[in-house]
Design brief:
Elements (H helix, E strand, L loop, with lengths): L11 H10 L12 H18 L4
Helix pairs in contact: 1-2
Length: 55
């Protein structure tokens, strides 16, 4: 069971910025790893953007 953490909610902008940073240097990563990187970024962006409505 997940319980909310005490304190202010995480800032969605921080998660979005972190996700976009994971795309930096993508041209130095093997193409086979691109899908996993894009999936992780997509999941982070989806979570961050969906949390904006709860603010």
């Amino acid at each position: 069971m997940n319980y909310p953490l005490p304190g202010p909610p995480p800032n969605p902008a921080d998660a979005i910025e972190g996700a976009l940073q994971r795309l930096e240097g993508l041209d130095n990563v093997e193409v086979a790893e691109h899908v996993a990187r894009f999936d992780a970024v997509h999941a982070t962006l989806t979570d961050a953007l969906s949390s904006i409505d709860k603010v």
